[in-house]
Design a protein that fits this description.
With 495 residues, this protein is of the alpha/beta class. The protein has two domains: 4-140, Chitobiase, domain 2 (2-Layer Sandwich); 146-459, TIM Barrel. Helices cover 30% and strands 18% of the residues. The protein has an eight-stranded parallel beta barrel, surrounded by six helices. Strand 3 (29-32), helix 1 and strand 4 (59-60) form a beta-alpha-beta unit. The two termini are 18 Å apart. Bound molecules: ligand TNX.
Length: 495
C-alpha cells in the first residue's frame, strides 16, 4: 500500500491513522457539498476514478452515510489554508477534501491520487486491485505562489496533444504555471491575425529543418482551457528584441537593415534583433501583444528580453521600457528574463533569473529594484541540461544537472529576499528534443524535484527521504507510460 509519507511534493503536515483506511468500492460516490458547483477538481477526479476502477462513481449533492463517500467541501471557513491549500482527511467511512478555492480542492485531489495504487492511472480498469487509501490527515499549502514549468515550442514544435500530456504531468506535482516559449529564431508558433506571415512563414520549420508548426487561436484556446481544468495558468512568451529571426524572415521591414533573412534551423543565439526605434516595431509589438492578451485569461505575458546581443545597450533599455508599458496597457503583468533589470523596471514587473554565468548579478539587480523574481537558475532548473556526461540528449553549457542537484537547492540561496521570491520554474529548451518521449526523458525524474522545492516547506527538505519517495513514483510512471530516466543515485525498484 502507498504510504502517506510517499507524497511528492512533501505536504506541510501528515498525521497517519493506521488501520482507518478507506476503500473505493463499486458503490462509492463523490459528494459535492456546494450545490451546482463546477469545480475542476470534481470532474477531474471522477474521470480518473471511473477510468481506473471501472466503477460508475456518480457525483451527487448528498449521500447516505452508509456508502463509501468522497466529499469535496469548498468553504470560506478554510481560508486559513490559503489560496491553494487543502486538508485531506481519510477514514474508513469517508475521504474528505476541504479548501477555500478550486485550486486547493484540485491539489487535494492530486494528493488523493498519489495515495491510490498506481494502477488507478490505467485507461482500462483492472478487476483485481483493492483501491485502498491509507487513513490519516494531511494539511497542506505551497511555499511559493509560482511553481512553473517552461516548454520551448519554438526550437521544436509540439502538438496540442503533446502540450496537454505535459500539462497532465505538471498537475500531478502541483505545478500551477505553464510558460510557453512561443517564439524564437527558429520558429514563430502562434497565429497572429494582424501579422499572418509570422506563423505561416515564421512557423514553417524548426531546428535541423525538422517540421515546423504553429497554434491557431483555437488551438491556443484549447490549451488554455485544458490547463485551466487542471488549475494551471498559461504564460505565453513572445521573445524580443532578440531571438526574432523567424519574425524577421516573415516581415523583413522589422529589421534595421531591411534585409531579408532566411529561416534559421541552427542553434546559435544572439544574432537577431528587432529594429528598436522604427515606428513599425512599436505597432508590431502593440498588435501582437494585444491579440495575445485577448487570447490569454491568465495574468502574465512574458516578453523574453534575453541574450539581446545584437541590440545596442541604450536601445535595449528603451525597448524594455516600451514593451513592458505595452503589456501593462493590455492589462497583463510583464515578465522578462532577468537581463531586463538593466532597465529601470516599474513596480509590478517580474524578472526571471536564469543566467548562472552572471554570478547572480541580474537577480540582485532585479531584487534591488524591488520587483518580484522567479528563480530558474540554469543549473539546477534547466531540464535540457544533460544528467551527466553520458546523457545523449541535451546541452551542457551550464554544466550537468543530476537528479539530486535538481532537488537539493534552496531558492533562498540567490540573494533575493524571501518576500520577493515569486517562486521557481523548471525550463525545458528543445534544441535537442524532438518528441514528447524526449521531453519526458529530460523532465523525469528531475521535474518533481523542482516542483517540490517550490511547494514544500524547507523543514521537509531531505535528499535521503526524497530519493525514496521519488523511487516510489516510478511504478506510477510505468502505468502512465512516462518515458523517465532511471538515473543513477535513486534506488529504483526492479522491473
Ligand atoms: C539559454 S535561457 C537561453 C535559450 C537556450 C538555453 C539552452 C535563456 C533565457 N536563453 O535561448 O535555449 O539557454 O539551455
Amino acid at each position: 500500500m502507498v504510504s502517506l509519507s510517499d507524497i511528492i511534493p512533501a505536504p506541510v503536515s501528515i498525521r497517519p491513522h493506521p488501520g482507518d483506511d478507506f476503500v473505493i468500492l463499486a458503490s462509492s460516490v463523490i459528494v459535492v457539498s456546494v450545490a451546482g458547483a463546477e469545480q475542476p477538481a470534481v470532474a477531474w477526479l471522477a474521470g480518473l476514478l471511473r477510468r481506473g476502477t471501472g466503477y460508475a462513481i456518480p457525483i451527487v449533492p448528498a449521500a447516505d452515510s452508509s456508502l463509501p463517500i468522497i466529499t469535496f467541501a469548498l468553504s470560506v471557513a478554510e481560508a486559513s489554508l490559503g489560496e491553494e491549500g487543502y486538508r485531506l482527511t481519510v477514514s474508513s467511512a469517508e475521504v474528505r477534501i476541504q479548501a477555500s478555492t478550486d485550486a486547493g480542492l484540485f491539489h487535494g485531489a492530486q494528493t488523493l491520487r498519489q495515495l491510490l495504487p498506481p494502477e488507478i492511472e490505467t485507461d482500462d480498469s483492472q478487476g483485481n486491485v483493492r483501491w485502498v487509501v491509507p487513513g490519516g490527515e494531511i494539511t497542506d499549502h505551497p511555499r511559493y505562489r509560482w511553481r512553473g514549468a517552461m516548454l520551448d515550442v519554438a526550437r521544436h514544435f509540439f502538438s496540442v496533444a503533446d502540450v496537454k500530456r505535459y500539462i497532465d504531468l505538471l498537475a500531478l506535482y502541483k505545478c500551477n504555471m505553464l510558460h510557453l516559449h512561443l517564439t524564437d529564431d527558429q520558429g514563430w508558433r502562434i497565429a497572429i491575425e494582424s501579422w499572418p506571415l509570422l506563423a505561416s512563414v515564421g512557423g514553417s520549420t524548426a531546428v535541423d529543418g525538422d517540421p515546423g508548426g504553429y497554434y491557431s487561436a483555437a488551438d491556443y484556446r484549447d490549451i488554455v482551457a485544458y490547463a485551466a481544468s487542471r488549475c494551471i495558468s498559461i504564460v505565453p512568451e513572445i521573445d524580443a528584441p532578440g531571438h526574432v529571426n523567424a519574425a524577421l524572415a516573415a516581415y523583413p521591414e522589422l529589421s534595421c537593415a531591411g534585409t531579408h533573412p532566411s529561416l534559421y534551423t541552427g542553434i546559435e543565439v544572439g544574432f537577431s534583433t528587432l529594429c528598436p526605434d522604427k515606428p513599425i516595431t512599436e505597432r508590431f509589438l502593440d498588435e501582437v501583444i494585444g491579440e495575445l492578451a485577448a487570447l490569454t485569461p491568465g495574468d502574465y505575458i512574458h516578453i523574453g528580453g534575453d541574450e539581446a546581443r545584437s541590440t545596442q545597450p541604450a536601445d535595449y533599455i528603451d525597448f524594455v521600457q516600451k514593451l513592458t508599458t505595452i503589456v501593462t496597457a493590455h492589462g497583463k503583468i510583464p515578465i522578462g528574463w532577468a537581463e531586463i533589470s538593466k532597465a529601470p523596471l516599474s513596480a509590478g514587473v517580474v524578472a526571471q533569473y536564469w543566467d548562472v554565468n552572471d554570478g547572480g548579478r541580474s537577480a540582485h539587480s532585479a531584487a534591488a529594484q524591488g520587483v518580484d523574481v522567479i528563480l530558474s537558475p540554469a543549473n539546477p532548473c534547466y531540464l535540457d541540461l544533460k544528467y551527466d556526461a553520458a546523457t545523449q540528449l541535451g546541452l551542457s553549457w551550464a554544466g550537468t544537472v543530476s537528479v539530486r542537484a535538481a532537488y537539493d537547492w534552496d531558492p533562498g540561496g540567490y540573494g533575493v529576499p524571501e518576500h520577493q521570491i515569486l517562486g521557481v520554474e523548471a525550463a525545458l529548451w528543445t534544441e535537442t528534443l524532438r518528441t514528447v518521449a524526449d521531453v519526458e526523458y529530460m523532465a523525469f525524474p528531475r521535474l518533481p524535484g523542482i516542483a517540490e522545492v517550490g511547494w514544500s516547506p524547507k523543514s521537509t527538505h531531505s535528499w535521503p527521504a526524497y530519493r525514496q519517495r521519488l523511487a516510489a513514483q516510478a511504478s506510477r510512471w510505468v502505468v502512465m507510460g512516462v518515458n523517465f530516466h532511471r538515473a543513477a543515485g535513486v534506488e529504483w525498484a526492479k522491473g
